[in-house]
Amino acid sequence: MASNAWRKLKKSLKSKLSFLSTPRSPTNHTAATTENPRLTTATPPLLPTISSSSSFSSRLSRSFSLHSSPKKCAICLTSLKKGQGQAIFYAECSHAFHFNCIADNVKHGNLRCPVCRSKWKDVPFQAPKNVPGFQRSGSVHAYAPPYNAPNASPVHIEPDHFSDDELVPDVSQGQPSSSRPHAITVKTLSEYPAVSASESFSKFGVLVRVLTPPLDNTLPHHRAPIDIVNVLDVSGSMASKMILLKRAVNFIIQNLGPSDRLSIVTFSSSARRILPLRTMSGSGREEAISVVNSLSATGGTNIVAGLRKGVRILEERRQHNSVASIILLSDGCDTQSHNTLNRLEYLKLLPTSIFPSNNASGEESRQPTFPIHTFGFGLDHDSAAMHSISDESGGTFSFIESIDILQDAFARCIGGLTSIVARDVQLKVRSASPGVQILSTPSGRHKNKIFDQGHQATIDIGDLYAEEEKDFLVFLSIPVFPAVDGEERLENMPLVDVSGFQKDSLSTDTVQVEGERVEIRRPQFLSPIDRIPCLEIDRQRNRLLVTETIARTQRMAEMGNLKGAQALLAEQLSTLLSTASSQAGDDLCNRLEAELKETRKRMETRELYERSGRAYVLSGMSSHSWQRAATRGPSMPISPGRNSDMRTTTSYETPSMTTMVTKSQNLNLAPRE
Fold first, then answer.
1. Residue 91: which residues within 8 A CB-CB, separation 6 or more?
2. How many other CB atoms are there within 10 angstroms of residue 309's CB atom?
3. Which of the residue ranges 47-51, 230-234, 312-316, 627-631 would you say has the lowest mean pLDDT?
4. In which order are the strands placed within the sheet that holds 261-267?
5. CA atoms of 546 and 575, how far apart (whole Å)
6. Polar residues: which segments have biased composition (predicted)?
7. Contact at 8 Å (CB) between 190 and 520?
8. How far apart are CA 425 and CA 461, in angstroms?
9. Which of 100, 190, 340, 359 to pair with 63, CA 20 to 30 A apart?
């Protein structure tokens, strides 16, 4: 039986070989195509002599593939007729397939035509089924990585509208507002305990301090969930930094919570979204890690395109987490937009939701501004542009002098963003006595307003991190305190009433913050104790003066007057060291002293200033103007103990930031696979 079957198979193969090897006349060929639709109308070339069964088998298969019918799918070998309920995909090489067949084929990394083996630039891709509510209507664009690229990225689709964000449960529902910690604390101090009744005071200082509570990890939703868009530079200059960049971004992914969402945009000569807004749990976290690990660097630098796409993701999302922010990383200048415009003029191409000054109407926009935390890598990045972008949007600018500290810098930023406990905080100051007038409220980049002829003022603080502390000086004009005939002189005089408002970290409920009344004594004669200034206010005066001086010297350095800048820094250093708070060994004053010395060092020569001085100074200005920690220069080891003088590595660093940086540093010390 077996020998008979084998003889029949050999006979069949012999007849097929004879049929394919024999030249045919046009008449015979026409007849053959009528009988066998798998043959084309073109006369095939003669097959060479077949010397082995394996060679014959491969060539026979190839012969049938090359002459496959345009009416049949070369993958499933069924009809390609229209109207049968299956989509048909026509490749750029003109071969047609069932869409589902070829999409499944491409999904496994095969980016060549199964028929002619030509390499495709545009490939079919099916939307992921695990992304709820994905918009399948309209056109989608697919990206095909180089076929032979190491760790080639999966094919990513990009819809016309970024409303494909993964939905998360509304954590604000089902939990009463009273069970959520939301009370910030407002404390006040006066510059002096008393002012003589017979004297006026033209610039009397009042310190208003805002403090937030710590995170309560015992509650299920103890902080505001966040939507983050990472906008990453993957231009050619980033090639040597990709390993550390991937590691740093993966650190962000691993340290976001299940209610947080992350999207990733990469930019080189153009920009593309490689990860939709996904929750950082389960498959979302796995997909994010996979996408990051497959990144590669090539091309130019188009910061504007990257930011525009990042903004669209936040503007077009269906669901909004309580907080949204963008993290921008770049090691160079914008080479695409910068070529046609003057320096920094290309920033006018950015949308007003991240660059409010681009609003042509001049009126304050009602749309939210998304803070952008910018990170400038190395010595060739455009620090002026990175600072302007963060400054306009309400973010911070970090100077990453060495790529080795990138993960720590990310950790510091994420430690803050994942600990927001109060939103849209506003301070309100009101005069409490006739003649007491509010002169100024220097608040850095926080918006402030004085109105009602100096009787009222507001300071918009925005979102606050857990255990964050911000200090604001309010300068008053205090009149003489005359005795009224027939009335007994009151020794205490109210100056101002301070109160506040905030939104709950999880909802839009506005909560009034209990404030304080600031009073001083108005005796006829002052005692020696009455003349001792408050050290807390003295140190804040120093902070404002040093920040203002550094900003002035930065402008002088830009105009080439480095000698004048050096002299001004030396003068301010001498003034700082003579103050009461500095001589008392105040930690903030020690940091300000070190900053003035380092700034002088980096402004010694034009070359040194261009190389690192500008970025160092701008990063410090960003940190001081928002009273928020930013990374600049080399990383410093964290000293143990919350009560030690060097409790934090950076000014304004919160305990949540410190904890996250410690986690990053411990991870860097651990052995890696």
1. 97, 102, 113, 120
2. 22
3. 47-51
4. 271-279, 261-267, 226-233, 323-330, 372-377, 397-400
5. 10
6. 22-36
7. yes
8. 5
9. 100
